[in-house]
Amino acid sequence: VTEVHEIVLQKVGHVPVAKGDFMKMPKSVRIFVSHCIQLMKPRGVYICDGSEAEAQEIIHKLEERGTLTRLTKYKNSYLCRTDPEDVARVESKTFICTPDKYETVPHVREGVAGILGHWMGPDQMQVELNDRFPGCMAGRMMYVIPFSMGPIGSPLSKIGVQVTDSNYVLLCMRLMTRISPKVWEVLGDKEFVKCIHSVGCPRPVQRVVKNHWPCNPENVLIAHFPHERKIKSYGSGYGGNSLLGKKCFALRIASVIARDEGWMAEHMLISGITPPNGEEMFITAAFPSACGKTNLAMTTPTLPGYKVQVVGDDIAWMRFNKKGELRAINPEAGFFGVAPGTNMQTNPNAMMSFQENSIFTNVAETADGGYYWEGLEDEVPKGMAIKTWLNETRALGQPGPPASHPNARFTCPASQCPIIHPRWEDPEGVPVSAIIFGGRRPKGVPLVFEAKSWEHGVMIGACVKSEATAAAEFKGKKIMHDPMAMRPFMGYNFGHYLQHWLDMPKVPGRKLPKIFHVNWFRTDESGKFLWPGFGENIRVIDWILRRCKGEDIAVESPIGFIPKPGSINMEGLGKINEKELFSMPKHYWLDDTRESRRFLEDQVGVDTPPIIFKLLEDQEAAFVAM
Ligand code: GDP
Ligand code: PGA
Ligand code: MN
Ligand code: MN
Fold this sequence. Notes:
Blueprint: H1 2-7, E1 11-12, E2 15-19, H2 27-40, E3 44-47, H3 52-65, E4 68-70, E5 78-80, E6 94-96, H4 101-104, H5 122-132, E7 141-149, E8 158-164, H6 167-176, E9 178-179, H7 182-187, E10 193-198, E11 221-225, E12 230-234, H8 239-242, H9 245-261, E13 264-266, E14 269-274, E15 281-286, H10 293-297, E16 307-312, E17 316-320, E18 326-329, E19 334-338, H11 348-353, E20 359-361, E21 364-366, E22 371-372, E23 385-387, E24 393-395, E25 409-413, E26 430-438, E27 448-450, H12 454-462, E28 465-467, E29 479-481, H13 494-503, E30 514-518, H14 538-548, E31 554-557, E32 560-563, H15 578-582, H16 586-603, H17 610-624
Parallel strand pairs: 2-3, 3-7, 5-20, 6-11, 8-10, 10-12, 15-26, 26-30
Antiparallel strand pairs: 1-2, 4-5, 7-8, 7-9, 11-12, 13-17, 14-15, 14-16, 17-18, 18-26, 19-25, 20-25, 21-22, 21-23, 23-24, 27-30, 28-29, 31-32
Bound molecules: guanosine-5'-diphosphate, 2-phosphoglycolic acid and manganese (II) ion (2 copies).
2-phosphoglycolic acid binds at residues 89, 240, 289-290, 293-294, 314, 336, 338, 471.
Family: Belongs to the phosphoenolpyruvate carboxykinase [GTP] family.
Pfam family, one: PEPCK_GTP
Subunit structure: Monomer.
């Protein structure tokens, strides 16, 4: 009798359960999933277990349909081309919804459009959602994904459940998060983050589907409800918009949880650096998207005797432990890295991480079943036929538009990185000695400087700017403010967030990391980089670590401590224009300091902690006196 019972297909309402056991999910999840079914009307429900067999079944389907192309040169690796209109995060259509507007966004100056988060009232958002979600999964399968951000069961980890109608999203979530039925056990009746994602293309489709990549670019909407711990994402399949564990959960929702619980959710890499003396130290670094986190996280140091091991390349969850040490975990399980520019010279460790079990999005394909993108010119033979991300064929070496999209990405398991840190899944996290900010600053900003205090470091973070990159929808190379590298990822009022940082030292006994700012991207008049970057960045990191140990190798300047002449090891580097690389032009900095103050007055207004303005005034006065 039981056997007969088991082969009868489960149903939720009228919708069949294609895989998995609905009743094995915790009650709160069953209620959530039932609600999703009622709302979005999928043709079936597929409860994922994260297994390899499951992945192979989905991959097979996607290959047949043409969404994925197997890259035969590598084991179990695939190329995917998106609809060319769905290639990046869409900041302008990303909202946070709270009843009180000013919980989410600062008081901006009248007539100024706020850029530090977009708020929409819950009622108005409901109208927008009602226009999109009812019936949006018609004719499609709804995948239910139980996942953990951070090692399953770690006290620092958090659980989410994502429903999605995109099997590409499911495959990427398998790489980027930890999907497992164990999540149901750990979850029990505790809280989870509710993640709802739809490509917004119910069947029969209303819009021509390009590249077998259903999406709905005109109607993209990514809504966050921090109080309800809920995310609703519609219309895009691109990573930052659709892999909801990443930016939506691990940064926007988590920053709110962190505010409430007294910790920090940051857009930061985490790495362990061992100098020749063997004393390892950990750094975290916040650079805006496509400004070098993945590269620095797993850099191959050019200085002999140094070792770098990566814990995370994009997101850090950090909290002070009982001993007062700041401990960081990487909530993710994979790397979602910028492909163009990645090669055996710049980042061999990334290259080695994606030789199998990986997904490549919007790169080109070579005739021999490999990947290709800008930056691989020296690693793929000239004359090789390629098919670009836009499906155009040409031979390498022939002129033509870019072979890959500038925001093309590789997605691979972090565990495959040859220098993954043995403690990368340590449930206690690793101790942080230095926090580094940075961005693409072609002019004026020296290679490295050190904050004069924790508060000064927070001010430096609040003034982070960078040239726009292809990771978001912005066009051109304008310099944009990206405070703390969190502009696109803030989950609550940026002024309150700065205060949260400033409050960190208020608990007695806390050992505060030192804070630094770096700039790998300063250029000369001809636009050439003044600093070789990549593996050579270890020279700057070495200076930073020595400062953390209190070495007398810095002098004070208006912007912070800068290296004493000769204190950064430049041995074997060839010709470097140190004068220009470290210069701090008075008029540039006067303008920049005033511009930063104006930015905070405009964008954060009365919510700006006064100490930040005080420090900017001091800086301005110091330059005036120079
Ligand atoms: P992320 O998005 O912050 O993780 O940035 P990535 O590490 O993926 O780098 C983004 C782009 O910046 C890639 O094209 C890299 O090749 C380039 N890049 C990274 N580090 C450096 C560096 O030190 N110097 C220069 N010039 N370019 C870099
Ligand atoms: P990254 O992350 O560019 O910081 O690697 C992805 C993103 O910000 O969309
Ligand atoms: Mn990022
Ligand atoms: Mn990255």
